[in-house]
Amino acid sequence: MGKSDHVTTALLLHPGLRNTRYAFYVTKQIHRKFNTKKEGTGVEVWRWCGYCEGGEAGVERLGTWNETTPGIPQHPLLFRDRPENYNRHKFRLFEKELFPYISSERLSDEPGALIRHRDAIGTRVIQAMSSSLNFTYEVREPIDDHWGVELEGGNWTGIVKHLQREEADICLDLTVTPQRYQVIQYTGGYIQQSVVILSSKPRPLPEYLSLIRPFEC
């Protein structure tokens, strides 16, 4: 049971909860509101929010329940599935050149340096998302220039490695495989790439074979 806002904030912002989808804390009433007779006569519910403090993690008080509260208030933010506003949070985006889906320009020859987007399908998708959800991003290439290959011991190379180590927040156009699906979370697909094998049509057999294969020449 917390005794102050400081305790509540420290608890919900603990590093162990950084990837938690829902985190709530119920404590004795800290603030004197809603015509309570005295402090501590009710309970408060606090919620961890990933991007509410200027794009960074913070906490917010959802409500207070006490003897004067009729029933249990239904707060619309209690189980919100996803943020509607990231408050200009800067995400770390990793990608590899794959035109026309991904196209970029290197700003430095250093491995893992920042790159600049060029017009491509993936660029338009991430720009539309950032505009709608109010976030920013910086773009880099994987240091080893790999998409992601599984190694022994559960480790990975490439973009998957950066996601696994929490060095990246988002990547673009990474093919779904059963192995990758075990270690990273995919969004719904927006591009389907069909691959086919082409070969030339069979040519007629030479005329000298007409005596032994008359119906195929």
TrEMBL record:
One of its GO terms (cellular component) is plasma membrane. The keyword Lipid metabolism does not apply. The keyword Lyase does not apply. It is found in: Cell membrane. It is a multi-pass membrane protein. It comes from the Eukaryota. GO terms for molecular function: ligand-gated monoatomic ion channel activity. Keywords: Cell membrane, Glycoprotein, Ion channel, Ion transport, Ligand-gated ion channel, Membrane, Receptor, Transmembrane, Transmembrane helix, Transport. It holds the Pfam family Lig_chan-Glu_bd. Residues 100-165 form the Ionotropic glutamate receptor L-glutamate and glycine-binding domain. PANTHER family: IONOTROPIC RECEPTOR 100A (PTHR42643:SF38), IONOTROPIC RECEPTOR 20A-RELATED (PTHR42643). This is Ionotropic glutamate receptor L-glutamate and glycine-binding domain-containing protein.
